[in-house]
């Protein structure tokens, strides 16, 4: 299964935490993904504030950056996050959904470098930025 | 509100409290535990935390969220300030795959100045000597 023949939403349905975050694909081109996380009350860090938890944003980035890394290969690969850094520029707009646009910086056989911006409405004013490194390995038969 | 919650706990020696005052923390199954004077944030395992069904493993983002919460709790515990510190950044190293079981995190204040604080955290499962992830965070104070 690759993202070429499975669409993102189907893959997300297989990842319980991504499903719990309500992630859905808005746009996909060859070199980037745009994914939305709709606002829901149980993603609020403080009840009634309308502020989505940083943790949810970090988990969204981890998921979508991983999907970009995964999408770099024709064959099924095991994709593992080596590191992830998230810069939080400003708080999300209250009660607003959060969108991320992620792209691959460089893909090699074993190591994939990816980055993504996070914004609410305006792509030109990001609220966070993530950069991650993933490793990939051919699937091995389990012993 | 979270500060009021914590200040009430400060009078107690040992405790094991759900962080359900925060809807997100409740959804994640976070608990705050104090034992022998040390704070630990716990993420109780449940199915919504899974990132890879076969073989079942925790979603890396949930481990990052746990470590951020543990750093924030440690900082608010130590700093006694009215406003919740703003997270500037987090850098996570993933060390081992997370099993579908409870996960624990402790944070250490590496440096605390007047304006900023730097914290290091680790997350582990059955064996504290084998962390599944570590993270470094910066917070803005005041």
SSE blueprint and pairings:
The complex is a heterodimer of chains A (143) and B (142).
Chain A: H1 8-13, H2 16-21, E1 24-29, E2 32-37, H3 54-70, E3 77-88, E4 98-107, E5 111-119, E6 128-138
Antiparallel strand pairs in A: 1-2, 2-4, 3-6, 4-5, 5-6
Chain B: H1 2-9, E1 15-18, H2 23-28, E2 30-35, E3 38-43, E4 50-52, E5 57-58, H3 60-79, E6 86-94, E7 103-112, E8 116-124, E9 133-140
Antiparallel strand pairs in B: 1-2, 2-3, 3-7, 4-5, 6-9, 7-8, 8-9
In short:
The complex is a heterodimer of chains A (143) and B (142). Chain A is α+β, with helices and mostly antiparallel strands.
Outline the low-pLDDT stretches of chain A: none
Q: Describe the global form of chain A.
A: globular
Please give the share of residues in helix of chain B.
10-25%
User: What is the highest CATH level, the class of chain A?
Assistant: Alpha Beta
Distance between the termini of chain B: 16 Å
Number of helices of chain A: 3
Give the largest interface pair and sizes. Answer: A-B, 35 and 37 residues
Please, how many domains of chain A? 1
> Approximately how much beta-strand content do the residues of chain B carry?
35-45%
Extended strand count of chain A: 6
The coarse overall form of chain B would be globular
User: Which superfamily, in CATH terms, is the homologous superfamily of chain A?
Assistant: Hotdog Thioesterase
- Beta strand % of chain A: 35-45%
């Amino acid at each position: 299964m690759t993202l070429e023949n499975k669409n993102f939403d189907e893959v997300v349905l297989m990842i319980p935490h991504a499903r719990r975050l309500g992630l859905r694909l808005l746009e996909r081109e060859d070199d980037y993904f745009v994914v939305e996380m709709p606002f829901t009350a149980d993603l609020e860090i403080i009840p009634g504030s309308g502020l989505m938890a940083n943790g949810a944003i970090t988990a969204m980035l981890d998921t979508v950056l991983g999907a970009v890394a995964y999408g770099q290969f024709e064959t099924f690969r095991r994709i593992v996050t080596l590191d992830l850094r998230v810069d939080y520029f400003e708080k999300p707009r209250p009660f607003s959904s959060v969108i991320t646009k992620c792209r691959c910086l460089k893909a090699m056989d074993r190591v994939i470098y990816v980055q993504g911006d996070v914004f609410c409405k305006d792509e030109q004013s990001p609220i966070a930025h993530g950069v991650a490194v993933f490793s990939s390995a051919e699937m091995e038969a389990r012993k | 509100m979270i500060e009021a919650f914590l200040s009430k706990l400060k009078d107690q020696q040992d405790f094991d409290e759900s962080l359900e005052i925060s809807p997100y923390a409740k959804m994640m199954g976070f608990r705050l535990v104090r034992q022998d004077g040390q704070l630990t944030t716990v993420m109780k395992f449940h199915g919504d935390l899974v990132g890879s069904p076969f073989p079942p493993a925790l979603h890396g983002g949930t481990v990052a969220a746990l470590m951020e919460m543990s750093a924030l709790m440690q900082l608010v515990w130590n700093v006694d300030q009215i406003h919740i510190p703003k997270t500037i950044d987090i850098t996570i190293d993933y060390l081992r795959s997370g099993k579908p079981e409870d996960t624990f995190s402790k944070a250490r204040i590496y440096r605390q100045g007047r304006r900023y604080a730097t914290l290091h955290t680790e997350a582990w499962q059955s064996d504290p000597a084998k962390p599944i992830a570590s993270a470094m965070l910066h917070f803005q104070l005041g």
